[in-house]
Design a protein that fits this description.
Layout lengths: L20 E6 L4 E4 L4 E6 L2 E7 L2 H7 L6 E2 L1 H4 L4 H15 L3 E6 L8 E5 L16 E4 L4 E5 L2 E5 L5 E5 L2 H9 L4 E2 H21 L3 E3 L7 H4 L3 H4 L3 H9 L49 H8 L14 H11 L4 E8 L5 E9 L11 E7 L8 E6 L4 E5 L3 H15 L7 E8 H5 L6 H22 L3 E5 L4 H8 L6 E10 L7
Antiparallel strand pairs: 1-5, 1-6, 2-3, 3-4, 6-7, 7-11, 8-12, 8-13, 9-10, 10-11, 14-15, 16-17, 16-19, 17-18, 19-21, 20-21
Helix pairs in contact: 1-3
Length: 494
């Protein structure tokens, strides 16, 4: 077949690139299943999510979500079927079951596939002016995932799978600031959609002519103190802002055998320490007994809940500020920096930063109303924080599931970090130090609970987005880094 001849109107002029067609489609793990009387369900990983009842025409059209439905085909919701499809797509999106493809035509090859990392993500093309100067976020990174190339950022609500090398090249260009107008001239419709989508996901940011540097130009002061790897680790080690399954999933069953509980002995002569250990005639100290008695309590006696007096003693012994002082920063060369405030508390902290804060979700406590509280360690007081009952219930249910318990804990303690408090001093190791501080605080909470005759249990996974909703704080300003369930333990056999 011969190519069409150029007319005077088109001769000597490049063809205008076709606009990209964004489409919503089911991710590869999901299938739709139609039931009797118009019921529709999404099936994935052995689970089923009921999506509601729909007309026969809507169900027939919904089955095309396997390949993808152009968003424009139902976005206007002009007909009744369009409205049904729009509702269905929103429900699928909220459940994290959709992805979004961009191609040059409805049946064309994928250029970009957007995978949501948060349930409320919906692709939006931000409005950018031709005179705007933009650059790639220092938190954005390209990596290989299986056979795919993906663009990610801990600040983004979505992940971008790059299916075309030209798109990857365009993204690489943005490591240095570029004018939007010039990028659109060179890359056409692709750049128009891509730049807007990336900007909406915090993959790109605007650079002002008066900016003192790219690091200061991106975000606020709380974001400045984050190193790339620290924020990435924080996001990937928690729930709420990434869609990768987390928790006890035993991902390597069938690949490698379970590692032994005790390491295989090193070769060489062993020095037996038994003769040097105190004999049975010497009574162990109270501290030694406390260490031996420490254990995780997952079931609590809700008929006899913890009291506010017990909670007050617990917080006083484990986390209260004992004293405060101020000292000028000494660089060791005779020069002096600003004055820095310090505190002393019952547990150790890197650089005496004491960046950790305690937030208490109270379900059952005699003398204290149900709700969310911040523990003011300086005043030894609880301050109520207004939070939605639905969010409190979600957090408690999540803790119950994580502990594999029959009921939620009486009190759920969220250990949150004020990231700038420790990042202001330490470079490269800030988040590592925070996690070390969490470890020693958890042991302190365990031993204090044991000493008071209470039960406690550390929980390994927290939800960044949920905590941000309940406290109204940006996830990178102050966020959860640990959880501890507290209450009166149920008697064995109850």
């Amino acid at each position: 077949m011969r190519a069409p001849k150029k007319t005077p109107a088109t001769r000597g002029r490049a063809a205008k690139p076709s606009a990209l067609v964004p489409a919503a489609r089911l991710n590869e793990r999901v299938t739709l299943e139609a039931h009797a009387q118009g019921g529709l369900a999404a099936c994935f990983d052995g689970f089923t999510v009921e999506l509601g009842r729909f007309s026969a025409k809507a169900i027939e059209r919904a089955l095309a979500l396997d390949a993808g439905l152009p968003i424009a085909s139902f976005a206007s919701a002009r007909s009744a079927v369009d409205k049904e499809i729009a509702l269905l797509v929103k429900r699928l999106a909220y459940s994290g079951l959709l992805e979004y493809r961009l191609a040059r035509s409805r049946g064309g090859k994928d250029l970009i596939v957007i995978e949501p990392q948060m349930a409320d993500y919906w692709p939006q093309v931000a409005a950018l002016k031709a005179t705007d100067t933009i650059a790639l976020s220092r938190f954005a990174y390209l990596r290989r995932r299986g056979n795919d190339m993906v663009l990610e950022s801990p600040r983004s609500k979505a992940l971008f799978k790059i299916c075309d090398p030209k798109v990857a090249a365009t993204i690489a260009m943005l490591s240095t600031p570029h004018k939007v107008g010039k990028l659109r001239q060179e890359h056409g419709a692709l750049a128009f959609a891509l730049l807007g989508l990336l900007f909406d996901c915090n993959m790109l940011f605007k650079v002002d002519a008066e900016s003192a540097g790219l690091r200061l130009a991106e975000g606020d002061g709380a974001l400045v103190v984050w190193d790339f790897h620290d924020l990435l680790f924080h996001i990937q080690a928690t729930e709420g802002r990434q869609a990768t399954p987390a928790g006890g999933r035993y991902p390597y069953i069938g690949l490698i055998p379970p590692p032994p509980a005790v390491r295989a002995p090193w070769g060489g002569e062993a020095i037996d320490l038994q003769p040097f250990t105190a004999g049975p005639e010497e009574a162990p100290s109270p501290f030694a007994l406390l260490l031996r008695e420490r254990h995780s309590t997952r079931e609590f006696d809700d008929a006899h809940p913890i009291t506010i007096a017990e909670l007050a003693r617990f917080l006083d012994r484990a986390a209260r500020v004992q004293w405060k002082w101020t000292s000028p920063l000494d660089f060791g060369d005779g020069s002096v920096g600003p004055d820095i405030d310090y505190t002393r508390r019952p547990y150790p902290s890197a650089g005496s930063a004491y960046e950790l804060e305690l937030y208490l979700l109270v379900a059952h406590c005699d003398g204290l109303a149900r709700g969310l509280y911040h523990y003011d360690a300086d005043r030894h007081a609880l301050v109520a924080i207004e939070a939605r009952a639905q969010d409190i219930e979600t957090q408690m249910t999540s803790a119950q599931f994580a502990m594999d318990a029959s009921a939620p804990p009486q009190i759920l303690v969220t250990i949150a970090a004020r990231f700038d408090r420790i990042s202001w001093k330490y470079s490269g190791i800030a988040y590592s130090l925070i996690l070390k501080d969490v470890g020693v605080l958890l042991q302190t909470l365990y031993l204090t609970a044991t000493d008071l005759g209470l039960g406690g249990c550390a929980i390994g996974l927290s939800n960044l987005d949920l905590f941000a909703r309940m406290t109204g704080q940006d996830f990178y300003r102050e966020g959860p880094v640990g959880l501890f369930a507290l209450g009166r333990g149920a008697k064995v056999g109850d």
